[in-house]
Amino acid sequence: MSALSIELPLKVISALNAREHHMARSRRVKAERKAVGLVLQSKPRPALPISVHLVRRSPRTLDSHDNLCSAFKGTVDEIARVFGIDDRSDLMSVTYAQEKTKAAHGIRIVIASRDNNSTSLRATP
Questions:
Q1: Of 1, 55, 74, 82, which shows the fewest CB atoms inside 10 Å?
Q2: How far is residue 1's CA from residue 123's CA, in Å, rounded to a whole number?
Q3: Which domains does the chain have, with CATH numbers?
């Protein structure tokens, strides 16, 4: 099985900089998790351990040392839930990136099996 690649039209924002009511944040994260979960459950999943690469697509970038990671917190939690593991588990490694786009917001999720000793993405045969 090759790497699983998914693109979703989600606008992920940094929870660290968002000035929103806690219930509005809860609804936003719940909707993000639901979208990711529905798509992942309908696709064949790579075997554990996995490498996950998350790409934020937006006209503006976030700083990569904390805001980018916090923007994907709900996504990472949902990926771990679908695979039946804790998001802190050594069975899942996560990397983050971002791309500037003209107008459209979205995310790309790439999930691939990895060697037990490696954290890099690789396609399985």
A1: 1
A2: 7
A3: 4-113 (3.30.1330.70)
